Amino acid sequence: MKKSIAAALLLGGILFTSCAQGGDDVLENKYNYDLSEYIELAEYKNLPANSFEYSVTDEEIARERDMMLIYYSKEIDVKDRGAESGDILYIDYTASVDGVHFEEGSGTDVKCTLGYEKFLFEDSLYGQKAGAVLSADCTYPEDYEAHPEYAGKDVHFDIKIDSVKRSEKPNYTDDFARAYLGSESIADYEAKLRERLEKSYEKNQLQYLVNQTWSKVYENTVVKEYPEECEDLYNDMISSNESYAAALGVSLDLYLAGNYAMSVEEFKEYARKEAEDRVKTEMICYAIARAENIEVSDEEYTKRATDLALNEYGCEDLAEFEAKYNKATIYQAILMDMVAEKIVELADITITDSAINFN
Q1: What is the pLDDT of residue 8?
Q2: Are 189 and 177 spatial neighbours (Cβ–Cβ below 8 Å)?
Q3: Residue 25: what pLDDT?
Q4: What's the pLDDT score for residue 118?
Q5: Model pLDDT, residue 12
Q6: What confidence score (pLDDT) does residue 52 get?
Q7: Radius of gyration (Cα) for the chain, nearest Å?
Q8: Least buried of 177, 208, 259, 288, by fewest C-beta within 10 Å?
């Protein structure tokens, strides 16, 4: 997904205006003038969009449950038989091509699960026991991208099997659910799992609709001229990078080359476009917010910002999130979320039978 107002349900790409005014004044203090002088706002109502009805199936629940049980599985030493498909081997191996040691093709204490065919010499490991020492002659594939110089060449492996283990899943019981899954029973766990998957589908569906509708509004909105905020943002981007370079004791040319792979002129061109894109995005959002009377209440702010802090940004709490991104900027980002959701609410949505690829 693109990092813009049409991605990650917006916030990932729009925490960019450190000087934004927030709280109850977010609409009054940002672009508090007639935006029609600067943009010809595209139609944002009744935009066509496709979606589909979704439901969580029992098969999905079973798949998630099985993945969870694999996560909690234990590795048990196998001593009474040779290695077989599904077993986990820990191995040391060295590779040589034309009699010359190939360091990148060697490894120590490497985990190998039989059946996944990750190793050229995997077939030779079946039936082997811990402590076995063996060799295998193989040929690298013609499309060996990791080291093209060895593509199609014969390779000799010397291998030592340190241990052979099998994976043992835990008993899926109410006691297990209470001890490891934070649930009272397996029925309680699966109910919570179903709810989580449904919320994930709902979020993905909304994001998919936002992507379709917002892109139309953005592309069809015409900028007549840019307000002073655009120049301010451009200058901020230049001056902040000049400050970073000075703090490191390097020239701006060297700093930009190392961090952006750009010359000064290329970066200025990039910064200009970035500033224009961001200000256009903001003007569209603020124009629609005022037209539709969209405001961020304190309750709405706390709810949405807390969800973002915990579930999107990995923060311990809202306070940590606000310390990283100032509160005014978060208010603005939430406002933009709400505008995008309003556009979806007003859209002409067609439900299709075909599956949607959210990627």
Answers
A1: 42
A2: yes
A3: 53
A4: 85
A5: 39
A6: 84
A7: 28
A8: 259
Number of Cβ within a 10 Å radius of residue 276: 15
Q: Which two tokens stand for residue 208?
A: 């998919």
β-bridge mates for residue 6, sequence order: none
Instruction: Please report the sign of the dihedral spanned by the C-alpha atoms of residue 26, residue 30, residue 34, residue 38.
Output: negative
Q: What's the 3-state SS for the chain?
A: CCCCCCCCCCHHHHCCCCCCCCHHHCCCCCCCCCHHHCEECCCCCCCEEEECCCCCCHHHHHHHHHHHHHHCCEEEECCCCCCCCCCEEEEEEEEEECCEEEEEEEEEEEEEECCCCCCCCHHHHCCCCCCCEEEEEEECCCCCCCCHHHCCCEEEEEEEEEEEEEEECCCCCHHHHHHHCCCCCHHHHHHHHHHHHHHHHHHHHHHHHHHHHHHHHHHHCEECCCCHHHHHHHHHHHHHHHHHHHHHCCCHHHHHHHHHCCCHHHHHHHHHHHHHHHHHHHHHHHHHHHHCCCCCCHHHHHHHHHHHHHHCCCCCCHHHHHHHCCHHHHHHHHHHHHHHHHHHHCCEEEECCCCCCCC
- So what's the pLDDT on residue 344? 96
Q: What is the pLDDT of residue 28?
A: 55
Phi, psi (degrees; rounded to nearest 5) at 79: -125, -15
Neighbour-count burial for 191-225, b at 16+ CB within 10 Å, e otherwise: eebbeebeeebeebbbbbbbbbbbebbbeebeeee
Phi, psi of 89 (to 5 degrees): -110, 140
Q: Which amino acid is at 314?
A: G
Q: What is the pLDDT of residue 29?
A: 66
List of the chain residues with pLDDT < 50:
1-24, 358-359
How far apart CA 160 and CA 132 sit, in angstroms, is 6
- Quote the tokens at residue 76: 């048990």
Q: What is the pTM of this model?
A: 0.69
